[in-house]
Amino acid sequence: MPITFKALSYIYDKDMPYAHKALDNIDLDIREGIITAIIGETGSGKSTLVEHLNALLLPSEGSLEILDYTLTAGNKPKFLKPLRKDVGLVFQFSEYQLFEETVLKDVAFGPQNFGIDQQTATSMAKEALRMVNIDESLFSASPLELSGGQKRRVAIAGIIACDPQIIVLDEPTAGLDPRGAKEIIDLFVDLNRKLKKTIIIVSHDNEMVYNYCDDTVVLSKGQIRYHGPTIDLFNDEKILKEYDLLEPQIVTLRKLLKNKGFRISDDARTLDVIVKQVKEQLK
Fold it and tell me: Number of structural domains, the chain?
């Protein structure tokens, strides 16, 4: 079943003189089993939207249906623990949340908190650390001794170890070098393609969104302005201009080649595909 927002609004400091409506009457269905991006300008409501997915925030108005759970305005849910196991949220700069004595203990904390016995939780933690390319020699190290990129991977491993059905990432590549960012995104693509995890990514990186995300949601001033296939969004110059979205470089290249008379398909999303199409026309 999809993740369904129904007329959902969220008001910070509700009933106060300085109340602010961060989300305004959101109706949205996010498909399961794919990678969906949430994009928009700073302050558009992206983080507020995804923080509803594991009930860090509760609707001020309307409702949210996710997996077998329903969050409704005015009702305090009694299923927070199972929901937060099934929906893992990776915060921006999530490495600041590391706190245990060792890397392994930190990653095993989540599964144990959800009722997994220590031996099984440790095994799950080791597997998750291997998935994020943390060498076994670091398992007994203090998380505080790691590099910034390693800390980010350990924090992500802590979410993966809980085996959530849905993984929500708030700016997962912020502060990482290009190689580290690609490795992190490739990991989540693998989780989606191989294990069918639903992945939701909040990002300002339109290049990454275009290359990896199946669907995209555009938020502006707390409202949905676009929701549909990512490739259609970045082929729509009107929407890009209206919401000040940067065009991916590969789209710009495709347009330049078309202006030179080459026939380049609109679904050519990688340089390899474009080069192949150009070569075929040069023969």
Answer: 2
At 58-99, the pLDDT tens digits run 999 999 999 999 999 999 888 899 999 999 998 888 788 899
Q: List the domain range (segments joined by +) for residue 253.
A: 248-283
pTM tops 0.70, yes or no: yes
Spell out the long-range contacts of 9-17 with Cβ–Cβ below 8 A and sequence spacing 24 or more.
9/59, 9/60, 9/61, 9/62, 9/222, 10/45, 10/48, 10/52, 10/57, 10/59, 10/60, 11/60, 11/61, 14/60
**Tens digits of per-residue pLDDT, 122-134?**
999 999 999 998 9
- Shared domain for 18 and 138, answered yes or no, is yes
Residue 161 and residue 205 in one domain:
yes
